[in-house]
Amino acid sequence: MKRLMTLHLLVPAAVACFGMALIVVGYLRNEQQLRDRSRKELWDNAYREGTRLSHIAQHLLRKGLVQAADLEMSYVALSPHLTLGVICDGDDVVRHASQIQWRGVSLRETPLEAIVPRLGAIRKELNGQVAIYPDGEVLWAVFPFFERSTTTPFVVVLAYDLVGPKKESTRLARHESISQSLGLLGGSLVLWMLLDTLITRRIARILVFAKQVASGRSPGVPATGADEIGAVGQAFADTVGQLRSTEKQLLEAAEQERWRLGMDLHDDICQRIAAAQLKAGVLGVSLARENSPHSVLAKQVAEQLSDAADIARGYARGLAPATLDRDGLNAALRDMTGHLTKAFGVPMHHDTDPRVLELPDATQVHLFRIAQELATNAAKHARATFINISLTFRDGLLELKVESDGRRFEIDSGPMTGMGLQLVNQRVRALNGRLLFLERDEPGGGTLAVCEVPVAPRLDH
Amino acid sequence: MKEKKSGKVGERAQQGWIWGVGGLLAASAFLLYGTFTWHPPEEIRPLKVAIGIWPGSETFVYARETGLLPREEVQLVEMSWSSATKVAFANRVVDAAVVSLDEVLRLLESRNDVRVVMVVGFSQGGDALLARTGVKSLAELRGRRIGAELNSVGSFVLSTALEDAGMPEGSLDPVAMNLAEMETAYMAGELDAVVTGEPWTTRLKAKGAVELFSSRHMNRDVCRVLVVREEILVERPDDIVRLVSAHFQARPLLQSGGDAKALKIIKRRLGVSDEDYKVVMSNMEMPDAGENLRMLGGELPTLRSLANSVAKKMVRQRLLAASPKAEDWMTAEFLKE
Fold first, then answer.
1. What domains lie within chain B, and their CATH numbers?
2. Could you tell me which of B90, B95, B98, B152 has the C-alpha nearest to residue B120?
3. Nearest Cβ partner of A193 from B1, B20, B41?
4. What's the whole-model pTM score?
5. CATH T-level assignment (fold) for domain A329-461
6. Does A186 touch chain B (CB under 8 A)?
7. Contact status, residue B215 vs residue B221, Cβ threshold 8 Å
8. CATH 1.10.10.60 assigned to A35-168
9. Most exposed of A374, B42, B209, B264 (fewest Cβ within 10 Å)?
10. In this predicted complex, what is the ipTM?
């Protein structure tokens, strides 16, 4: 149900419903109009035919042209919807008829007997009448005239069927409504397609774009075009671009800050601890010479200061790897793998293309941090028996691969969805690269994390 | 290695394209259908068939009165005499008509949309030259007034009678009038003889007129057929089949065993008694569907041979300028044995 409540279904459905309502109203009005028009035409025709026939019959019969009157009545049969037409004498005997079988028969014996009771009044008034009765099914035209030999007027009686025209009106109205409905259905389909192409699909792309942005990717411009949705898409893309730029600046600032902290830690705190350790050692030796029981304590202080110096140096190395600044990415990775192997007891190897040194410093820093985070996570969470790090160039890309066995990395859960992965993703975005996690098909399972970064063509060769 | 994030963007795009094209086709089809049928439909009107007063075409009246031909589907336009049907048909006032073969040949001189779909009947004495009692031969009528329907079957019978008697054209003084008027004029003494057809032949004989010549001497030359306009055959073939079928259903019943009420109406229309009705029917031969098929169908339809023969006579009698060149004026398509 929720899937149906979409704009591209609701809008055409609303148009179709509204259109159908209009068609139904139109059908009812159209049917009534057609009925009224048909009845009016029949009425006019009945009056015209009745008047004409009474005048012509009067003329022909006064001249004794009986056959001509017969022929006139034959042609009356061509009038649309005429049931029967007759000319009666003063005794209500049919003299001429559109159906020859009624000639010479009393009007009471014909299908027109219903008009007989009214003939007296019509003859008396000597006025022709057009009327509908009974039940609106028959239209009558009765026109009296004087034939030479009689004192009682003759009458022309024409009976028209009203049921047929009524059915015909309904048929015509229905036909038109069906045609309109088909047109409306076709129009709704076209509207649906237009909405789908012009609005829904583009909005869906913006939605996908928003989700991709939320997951850390920058997929480009979600919607183009000169219309409002195109403008929204462009503005969205601009905003995301600005966001990414700010993010990059923040990363660089954070890196600089980390570097400064690391350097401060190494150059100041570590030096002070080393000095304190040295002094504690000298103090211990002096107290031992004097056989002072405090010499042991002084020695312990010196040892703890030594440990503190090691920890501080580790922190400093993590925050500002001196080898990266001094010897480049290759040396920094060697240093880092050696440190992590010692720290976690997992054998680590690295294979680095020497051309990585030609990369910009910022790129090297990002790649080092990405490799550091991925390798640390593999060592911490995958229970790996080995970790391999490689940096190679291929097809205009620099590929950083971190491969490990053990527990497979779950993209949707686990620690990597935390801050660490977010920072990795930020760095990948800063490099305009992409990060993939592939399952290793080899025994022992594990994961191959691949970070692809576009590089200048010269480095590719 | 398997990529964990298997993108489905391409698949969705293809599905969307299929939906789009399918939708466009469906919409276009509906719109086209709606557009083509948007115009108000043709009004359904009954098929108009003109018939004169002639016993052979009473099959249609019988069919109407017994419900074989619903009034809302077929409207019979009843003319007081047969030749009026030709005029109505020629002027496109009616869709079909019962006319004589010589009238068909006359129509073909100026029209090429005439199609004969059925032979209704042959006159076997029904069309005749009648004179007053005592007149023994046509020669006795030389210079006398004789009523005849000119430009119709009457003139063909008159010319053939003169030819048969070896009398030149102009030997008689023909007076043009229709069959219905003829009886009154003859009885009023305005005419010395008449060339008439059924039911007036039987009626006048009953009043003392004598037969000098009749269609019995003309083999099957006096033949009446059902003609339909070509466009009507295309537009309303079912109605034509229904009409033809009704004729063949009514045909045997008209002669015996038919509905009494309907037969009474027919006798009233013809203005004949029960006895005279039998005489009227005996002066006519009505082929059944099988014979009709033989006459109208096949590679050598016999009606064509008959028409060629009649046309030659009419050309000789100067009733027709030339034999019709058209070949496709008859069809057996609407006949079912």
1. 47-123+221-316 (3.40.190.10), 128-218 (3.40.190.10)
2. B98
3. B20
4. 0.64
5. Heat Shock Protein 90 (3.30.565)
6. yes
7. yes
8. no
9. B42
10. 0.74
